[in-house]
Amino acid sequence: MIRQSTKLPKWWTLQLSCKRLYTTPSPVVLNFHEVHETGESENTVSPISEKEPTPVVVLHGLFGNSVTFRNILQKKDGILRGGRRAFVLDARNHGKSPHNSSITYEDMTQDLILFLKSRNIKKSILLGHSMGGKTILNTLLHHETFVKEYIEKSIVVDIAPMSYMNHPRWEVKQMLTAMESIPLERIQKRRDAEDHIKHLILDPKVRLFLLTNLVRPEEGENWTWKFNIKAIRNHINDVGGFPEIITNKKCAQKVLFVRGGTSFYVQEPEALDLIEKHFEDYKIKIVPNASHWVHTDNTPVFERVVRDLIENE
After folding, report:
1. String of b and e for 151-186 (b: at least 16 CB within 10 Å)?
2. Which residue intervals define the domain AB hydrolase-1 in the entry (predicted)?
């Protein structure tokens, strides 16, 4: 049974309302799923025992939501073997989480901080892909005190703390333009939308991934996007970029960077230089036969690499 409970404790609501007088950005309450090998629940946190393995908190990438990682995490003898649990979050403006006019990495860091503190998750292992990975990197580099108290180690999937806005292989702008071109008021089914963009997005797997976010609230109503496409367009420079790193101190947190074997994101010299410059205790693992979508292109190897870090390092 799925139980719904998104209310925050009164003490946190009061604390949050006071902080909003003095700080920006304001965090939002994220939708999430608690996932075990044997099942899941939505927006509930079962009591966490001190004896149980450290939980994993998962942050998806741009245009994604919690569904893909939930499916991977529930595989028997996989990442969550041994009674470990995961909390898979929908980022702001994605999935079932609230839409907001702003979407920056500091926004998403504040959302993560709110989630962990308000749900009393004292220690966790962070796992983030692409945009979710950048959110983790921003948190590690700019919130040292919080990280020491709440984060045990981190896994960053196919991304580095840098801007990709001007990279010739960064195709997010083209994806966004293609989706914006779909006449939602005229299409009858997803196949119509796919036909409309197939000359703009040539990879059928990418088209399928994007169009899973196309939903029809009620029969006869216009199709709409799960994610907040307007906010993403307005903040595309923030999403494609990365906040200025204002510290010269290396992050001491243990970080595993997982790179797709055919992906450019972490093999660029600038990416490697920035990782070396800002992280003290890191490793880079390569998943062969995988593009940027590492976790779906080669799931068995991805699972093994992630599980090894979680259990053994």
Report:
1. bbbbbbbbbbbbebeeeeeebbeebbebbeebeeee
2. 55-298
pLDDT tens digits along 90-149: 999 999 999 999 999 999 999 999 999 999 999 999 999 999 999 999 999 999 999 999
Q: Which residue has the tokens 């109503």?
A: 221
- 108 and 217 belong to one structural domain: no
Give yes or no: residues 269 and 224 share one domain: no
30 and 92, same structural domain?
yes
Q: Are residues 84 and 202 in the same domain?
A: no
Q: Do the strands 32-36 and 39-42 form a parallel or antiparallel pair, or are they unpaired?
A: antiparallel
The pTM is what? 0.90
Give the number of residues written for the chain: 313
Please answer whether residues 309 and 256 qualify as being in contact, where contact means their C-beta atoms are separated by less than 8 angstroms: yes
User: How many domains are there within the chain?
Assistant: 2
Q: pLDDT tens digits, residue range 219-236?
A: 878 999 999 999 999 999
Residues 261 and 296 both lie in one domain: yes
Same domain, 108 and 196: no
